[in-house]
Amino acid sequence: MINKLVEKIQKMNAPIVVGLDPMMKFVPEHITKKAFEEYGETLEGAAEAIWQYNKGIVDAIYDLVPAVKPQIAMYEQFGIPGLVAFHKTVEYCKQKGLVVIGDIKRGDIGSTSEAYAVGHLGKVAVGSKSYYGFDEDFVTVNPYLGSDGVNPFIKVCKEEKKGIFVLVKTSNPSSGEFQDRLVDGKPLYEIVGEQVAKWGEDCMGDSYSYVGAVVGATYPEQGKLLRKVMPKAFILVPGYGAQGGKGADLVHFFNEDGLGAIINSSRGIIAAYQQEKYAQFGGLNYAEASRQAVLDMKEDIASALANR
Questions:
Q1: Which H helix or E strand runs over 235?
Q2: What is the pLDDT confidence band of residue 242, given thresholds at 50, 70 and 90?
Q3: Tell me: domain 2-306, CATH 3.20.20.70, correct?
Q4: pLDDT tens per residue across span 16-74
Q5: φ, ψ for residue 85, nearest 5 deg
Q6: What global pTM score does this model have?
Q7: Do the Cβ atoms of 164 and 238 come closer than 8 Å?
């Protein structure tokens, strides 16, 4: 799957992933109104609204970007109907040829991580048969329980030719409370990055490993260091746009071949119509606003890489 992701990035000239992180305040009124008329102001109504909202965005951007990243918490808040909407979104994106990165941030003791890995990347045994659960192509993994929590994901990745992105240096303001702590003279995030590189040595695609890393756009200097620590790891970079990251901050996340990183923007794209820059589209044309935001992001990143 890492080979497919690299190939699609090259073909589209777009090292971009769109975060499908729906919140009800992002969904235009005409969509919520129709969903509530059918299902009422219920969890089912909310789930239908976010599913239709997602579908409109995917239809508008699938030919521009290689991948999407649905954040499962935004669906879980609506209970079982929300998880159904998550599953429908994953399936629909794959039908459109998109690589799907499930932003699930799982990581637990061995047996629990094994169940997470099977449920999201692999197949679960049911009697004499086996079935895919959510069936994403990649997932995000929290490494802070150690190898016990990561190895089950790596095992399934080898079996299914899928991948993971391990949290190394996250984009949130308080990430440094733990991730920047010095251990034997090194910040913890660097030690985690070194371990990601080791995990990845045995999980190589053609040029990059199935084991990638998450490093926030809001920490470009740390990204520069970690790019050297993990030369074969693809880096998923959240924090572009709404969290303050911009194209000029991102050049050090890429290798000299122009690859090695994929930049995420979530609400900066999916809620673009609510920004002053794209307000002329209005709620009825929210998907077209998202498409324009993707085009602007592509131009920003391409310009930054060309001038690095």
A1: strand 235-237
A2: low
A3: yes
A4: 999 999 999 999 999 999 999 999 999 999 999 999 999 999 999 999 999 999 999 99
A5: -65, -40
A6: 0.95
A7: no
The whole-angstrom separation of Cα 266 and Cα 20 is 6
- Candidates 55, 94, 105, 155; catalytic one: 105
Q: What is the DSSP string of 242-274?
A: TTSB-GGG-GGGS-TTS-SEEEEESHHHHTGGG
Looking at every residue in the chain, the average pLDDT score rounds to 94
| CB of 66 closer than 8 Å to CB of 297 | no
Which residues lie closer than 8 Å to 22 by C-beta, 6 or more apart? 50, 53, 54, 74, 75, 270
* Domain boundary assignment for the chain: 2-306
Among residues 256, 255, 254, 265, the alpha carbon closest in space to that of 298 is found at 265
What are the backbone angles phi and psi of residue 71, rounded to the nearest 5°?
-90, 115
pLDDT digits over 138-159, tens only?
999 999 999 999 999 999 999 9
- Nearest one of 288, 299, 300, 271 to 26, comparing CA atoms: 271
Distance between CA atoms of 104 and 119, rounded to whole angstroms?
11
Rounded Cα gap, residues 115 and 280, in angstroms: 46
**Helix, strand or coil, per DSSP, at residue 159:** helix
Query: Kindly report the CA angle at 227 between 222 and 229, in degrees rounded to 5?
Result: 95
> Going by C-beta distance under 8 Å and a sequence separation of 6 or more, which residues neighbour residue 77?
none
Respond yes or no: is residue 88 known to be catalytic. no
Residue 247's pLDDT band, with cuts at 50, 70 and 90, is confident
pLDDT for 245? 61
Give Rg (Cα) of the chain. 19
